[in-house]
Amino acid sequence: MSSLTQDDHIESAVATMRREREKRPREIRREQEEQGAKRHAQTVSYDYRPQNHGYRREVPQGWLDCPRAGQCIDILIPSKVPLDDTYNDFVTPCKRYSSKQLINEQKINGREIGLVLDLTNTTRYYSAEEWTKLGIKHLKIRCKGRDSVPDNESVNRFVFEVIDFRNRQNSLKNRKYIVVHCTHGHNRTGFMIVHFLMRSQVFSVTQALNIFAERRPPGIYKPDYIQALYDFYHEVPENMVCPPTPEWKRSSDLDLNGEALPDDNNDVGNPSVPSNDHMDNKNITNDDVLGDAIPYHQQEVLRLLCYQLLEIPPQARGNLQFPGSHPVSLNSDNLQLLRQRYYYTTWKADGTRYMMLILRDGCYLVDRTFSFRRVQMRFPLKNIHDGFHDLTLIDGEMIIDKIPEVGLKRRYLAYDLMTLNGLPTVRLPFSERWKLIEEEIVKPRNFERKLFEVEGRSNPVYRYAMELFGGCDDPYVCRTHEGLLKWKYPEMNSVDFLFEVGSENRQLLFLYERGKKKLMDGTRIDFGANSKSVLL
């Protein structure tokens, strides 16, 4: 056993102290790293829960072998949904597909992404921040992927967003692209893109379906989606062919009939059955709300557009009023006009007043409150191969006709034309505007109906007529037009009243006369035999 000297003992103590001093900073750094990792994990967990509602990380059925993205269709890139990093434990590296990978793959092909339209009905697949932090706009349009096709309002919003984005890109040197995805990028994605093609370019449903199938094979493979498109555009396919279920839809993802199981991506709600927008023709009335709602921003855009087409000076937003021409009643004061001018006249229709704005992407009814709703009506140009009307504005009303052996049917009676494909016609004599309605709108539409449309629908069908006394040489006058005359038998006359309940339950009755309200004090209103009268 060796012995230690005092110097050896002192030297060993110094060495120990040195080792402790060198060791302590390393321990502190390690503790800080461990604490930081814990804090980071807690932060991720906190941010993550509300985004994914506690769902387990399950890869969507058939997603692994589903092709990533299709070829461009205009500025649209159809794609399956990218999955964030939380799915990495369930997806082998060679089959991972994240938002970063999608962006990089498109950059390699010379495409920069500017907008993502997300059609899934869940937030579990990724956070929208993955796009927005890179300056890419993300817009979610929830569409159920089970037993129902996307509703009309969702379609309207999708088409509006695409067209609005594309119009803004036209002025840029390097335009950006739009990624459209549902879960697999076929049925809902294809359904929306076909609607866009139908409303922006000259296609039949069959042509639009084939274009999508070529760019994103095998295309839409759910029969109900394909049938819904033909029904919506009133077309009858000669031979409707539905592609077979893709191979990447594994046998475990098929039902007993070999059909694809529904996509399991709904956060809330039960699958809904497609609604039938066509009312029984025995129950239709003039009070029915026609058409589909459109986005609020689109309402503002269309109001300003109408003012521009009618060459009305712009006003402050929020104060735009219905610009249609208003007739005045025929009386002893203006009866002399019938002796001084040539007039057109016809039967009194007693329908609901609507202007109709025809754009390339659709047709919009404009009511007296200056609100717009989209209706499915197509207006081809005189040469049907040149496309559809765009920036055409007509005036008229919707009525209900009783047709023998058919029943009640809606008719749109057009009695004036203000703009024809962007060219103003308001200064033309009424007789010329009348001829343009017949030659440029009625005849081409009737010709196309024979080619494509299904008869017997309760959707508005175009027909023209004249309800008012209109001066043969008169221009179109916005708002009150003293030369535009209307007349009824005395027993058919009606008066418009407005009943309001104000502050402190104060009840007010106004008489509407030429668009102005006149308060009627001391008036009693009788709401019927079972109701109490109200003294104002």
Automatic annotation (TrEMBL):
Catalytic residues in the record: C182, K348
Annotated Basic and acidic residues bias: 1-37
Chain intervals for the UniProt region annotation (Disordered): 1-46, 252-279
InterPro entries: Dual-sp_phosphatase_cat-dom, mRNA_cap_enz_bifunc, mRNA_cap_enzyme_adenylation, mRNA_Capping_Enz/RNA_Phosphat, Prot-tyrosine_phosphatase-like, Tyr_Pase_AS, Tyr_Pase_dom, TYR_PHOSPHATASE_DUAL_dom
An individual GO BP term: 7-methylguanosine mRNA capping
Alphabetized Pfam families for the sequence: DSPc, mRNA_cap_enzyme
Molecular function GO labels: ATP binding; GTP binding; mRNA 5'-triphosphate monophosphatase activity; mRNA guanylyltransferase activity; phosphoprotein phosphatase activity
Tyrosine specific protein phosphatases domain ranges (all copies): 156-227
Gene3D superfamilies the UniProt entry points to: DNA ligase/mRNA capping enzyme, Protein tyrosine phosphatase superfamily
Amino acids binding GTP: R353, R368, D395, G396, E397, K486, W487, K488
Keyword GTP-binding: yes
Record flagged with keyword Endoplasmic reticulum: no
UniProt keyword list: GTP-binding, Hydrolase, Nucleotide-binding, Protein phosphatase
PANTHER family associated with the record: MRNA-CAPPING ENZYME
UniProt-recorded name of the protein: mRNA-capping enzyme
Source organism of this protein record: Rhynchospora pubera
